[in-house]
Amino acid sequence: MPVKRWHAELAWLGGDTVAEQVLLEVEADRFLRVTPGSQPPADAVRLPGLTIPGLVNAHSHAFHRALRGHTHYGAGDFWAWRRQMYAVADQLRPDSYLALARAVYAEMALAGITTVGEFHYLHHAPGGVGYDDANAMGVALVAAAAEAGIRISLLDTCYLQADVEGSALSGPQLRFGDGDVAGWAARVAGLPAAARGIAPMTARVGAAIHSVRAVPADGLAEVSAVATGLAGPLHLHLSEQPAENAACLAATGRTPAALCAEHGVLGGRTTAVHATHLSAADVCLLGSSATAVCLCPTTERDLADGIGPSAALRAAGSALCLGSDSHAAIDLLEEARAVELDERLASLRRGTHPASVLLTAATAGGADALGWPEAGRLVPGALADFATIRMDSVRTAGADPGTAMAMATFAAGAADVTNVVVGGLTIVSDGESRRLHQVGRALAEAIRPLWS
Question: What share of the chain is helix, strand, coil (3-state, %, to 5)?
């Protein structure tokens, strides 16, 4: 295949500095050569600004995007917000979910996101009735990502009970359940072939435990085994709320982290999402098992969840990655800086997580957590996914090679992303999607009927 070339004014190739005048050469969907200090060939696309590996959104619930602007007023907590979320979930069907998710993933692309981890539990029709295609909703998500031009790890989520005591699902929750782990596993077995049929190069399938509330303790190991069989990652919500911890302790005598450790859930292919309310022993369990942690600061602050112990987790051995979760905002640069800025608020110290650590969490950390270890890096042989951030906007003006990393991490935002390439194909150019025209209008048209 012909070699494609891009020439980056500045590029982050890892570490604490940026390289200048970097020639990116791509053959098929991978980097052939990455050469700093190069003059731009005549056929190269110029990339003014700072080019970084494609951002990776490791935790998404696509349909939550419909809640933005509707749930920010009034009092309440996570559990009050959840009732509104269930009401929106009950409106969606495969066709409307495809339209919404396609627009949401296009919004992600505009923000420099090239891979998404979709934590998918909206499986069935209202009342829990299965569609003729048992995976119709998951197929819609894979198709949506393909049409928006980004990669997806579909994390099919096991959700069997309403609380840790084993109460039955009811109302909108009926759409989430498969009866038991065996029923869930039987449905999931058909997903890899379906994903390959739609997006053979850009879709992978993993598994998820919704939470210790939603999967009985004796089913945790079974779900983990299914993830192993899929050769994909395993994700779970963990200790997002103090009430979750208290209920788990009352029912099992263990914290959620300890319960998961006991049943073999933790480990190097597992990612714990949120991990906000952990004991010191919980932090050690996650770190010593090399369990990754996905932080979602814009959602955690929006829902008043709290500030997680990011510094302690990183020191204990947990790799960090980032997600936009409920999509109160879709801006991975904001998620990255919030990890450090929230840590400053909690610790009264600055500089715990340097820019290189935050950019790694937003790129390679997420790619590893989603089962794309060949992504998230600007190196020969890696998937050719990258994004360029302008360094001359009102937010980033004044940057130079020595400050570009800090400017991107602590000042730039989604609106500063100009170009995005996935697998050597341009999906965003000059800040405009090449896959979906008028992304804002598409979002509005998908969201409006859900509230009518």
Answer: 40, 20, 40
Take residue 267 and report the two structure tokens written for it. 């480990």
Q: What is the pTM of this model?
A: 0.97
Alpha-carbon distances of 138 from 133, 150, 279, 417, rounded to whole Å: 10, 16, 35, 29
Q: What's 364's DSSP letter? A: I
Domain range annotation of the chain: 3-53+376-433, 55-369
pLDDT digits (tens, 9 = 90+) for 346-360: 999 999 999 999 999
pLDDT digit string, tens, across residues 238-251: 999 999 999 999 99
In the beta sheet, which residues pair with residue 204?
Answer: 153
**DSSP-assigned beta bridge partners for residue 330:** none
Spatial separation of the C-alpha atoms in residues 176 and 160, rounded to whole Å: 7
Nearest to residue 174, comparing CAs of 118, 219, 130?
A: 130
Instruction: Please state, in angstroms and rounded to a whole number, the distance separating the CA atoms of residues 229 and 76.
Output: 41
pLDDT in tens, 251-308: 999 999 999 999 999 999 999 999 999 999 999 999 999 999 999 999 999 999 999 9
CB atoms within 10 A of CB 179: 12
3-53+376-433: which CATH number, 2.30.40.10, 2.60.120.380, 1.10.1520.10, 3.40.720.10?
2.30.40.10
Cβ atoms 1, 27 nearer than 8 A? yes
Separation between Cα atoms, residue 383 and residue 374, nearest integer Å: 6
CA distances from 190 to 177, 197, 227, 325 (A): 17, 11, 14, 26
Classified as helix, coil or strand, 346 is helix
Residues in the chain: 452
What are 168's two structure tokens? 């039955």
Diameter of the chain measured on Cα atoms: 67
Domain 55-369 has CATH 3.20.20.140: yes
Instruction: Outline where 111-190 has alpha helix (H).
Output: 136-148, 181-188
SS3 at position 117: strand
Q: Which segments of 65-199 does DSSP mark as H helices, in order?
A: 78-89, 94-110, 136-148, 181-188, 191-198
